[in-house]
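The passage that follows is intended for readers who have already worked through the single-chain material. We present the inputs for a multi-component assembly, then the predicted structure in tokenized form, and finally a short commentary. You are encouraged to pause after the input and sketch how you expect the pieces to fit together before reading on.
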Amino acid sequence: MAKLPKISERFTGAIQATDQAQRIAELQAEVERLRVTQSPELEEQIEELRKQLLAEEGELEIAVDEIDPNPYQPRQTLTSESIQTIARSMEKDGQIAPIIVIAQSDRYLLWDGQRRWSAAKLLGWKTLRAVKALMPEDLHRKALLTFIHHEDLNYLDKAEAIIKELTTSTGMLAEEIPTVLSTVLRRLERSGAANQLTALVTATTEAQVQGVKSLGVSENEEKILLALLDLALNPASVKANLMPMLYLPKDLKAAIREQELKGAHALALTVLSAKTLKTSERQATKERIEATNQVIEQDLTVPKTRELVAKIKAKYVKPEISESKEVTTVVRGVEKLSKSVIVSTSPEQLTELRQILQQKLLEIDEILNQ
Amino acid sequence: MAQVANDLVIRRRGEYVLADRLKSHPLRHDVIILDCPATIGIICENAIAASTGLLVPIQLEMKSVSGVADLVQWLIGIADDLMLDPHPPILGLIPSLYDNSRAIHRQYLQQLPEVAEQLRVKLYPQIRDSSEFKNSSANGLPLQKYRPAHPACKDFKTIADDIVTLVRKGKL
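Having made your guess, compare it with the prediction:
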């Protein structure tokens, strides 16, 4: 007697449709949630993702070289043997299940199918069958990880996303986090333990917990440090590069979001403040906006931006007048030049000295008479 | 009935005729059960548009199983097409006309939980087959009234309890 066919086989389509409907519903819920809380850029990206998902009609052929491996792939080490095995099977029977990818701008992040993807590269396949943009259950955290480590995301958005995650994971207020973080880091720097902390970024969670405990920090400090380490972020770098973003003036934040001003440039431009320029808030803002536009239009490098800032600053603030060591040295040298020394010096050398001294006297008179 | 189906096609809001009527002329009942034909068509679409939950009877034979598989897939599409908000959920699969003496029934009943889980749908206890269903139906009565002591009456308990709970919670 022939074996009865299994009913589950008949349900493949229905299950796929159910899964897809479920994922769409979950993603939409997540989109709504993120919309409310995240920055406009993220909103746009997610809107795009949603459009793609809605337009999605099952499987796609995706170019192997347009796929990036998932850095959060739990199985980091894949033996070449296991890849060989899959490659042999794929060569013989073709690709059986589609891989799962998540669309990321014009490339795809590999969500499931690390071995098949590696095998496809091995076989020299150009494309793989894939399902696109399906949502993992803990999208938020994974999305956050993806986003904060994504080079395209600007520092300001990163900083805000990180603060948001820290408020959720530590239960602390957004305002107190930067203060607590800089306090603890300053203390660790003074005690020479800062390097120990940086070394923990790549450590296992357990080692991170142990390591932070051994630094002798307060409860809140510990929470923040562990949360950052857990996101594979270096606390010192967060403090130096990201936290200052939160305190940027509005016009610079807008320039980052709307004109793609880079974080380092924005930091250089913050020097142009009412306080440093010793001028009105309005005048400082005007100078800052003009400089910002110049930086963006001429695509200035960070050093060039600093030069520009220094030039503007010089217009407002006279260079500091103070005791100069060099002058002190010269004065002492001249005093040492006793008569007996001068008497025994050749006339040529004395003429030269006279020339230089006369020249310098003119310059000094000029400055003193101003 | 065939005529009704034909008329519905050309009627304005043809898929929503029943839903519209129930809205404009609400009934005083707590629950209305709409028994649908085993075919997918505009009559069925009317029932779905009007409903707040779906119960899917499934006979443990390949033809019925296949039908249910297609139905589940079709439901997702049709709820989208009809823009039902919220989509009426499938309250559960109900294995029906179950005959424990048949190997195929026993075998498929065993396989159902896995399928139901993957479909994220509840699986109700099976309703046994009995000729008394046909007799009670011929007399225009539910089995519970026609033969209250019949063992098959108990098979409905979980479903009835669930529906009562949902109604009490205002979820139906």
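Commentary: The two ends of chain B are 27 Å apart (CA to CA). The longest strand of chain B covers residues 90-96. How closely did your sketch match?
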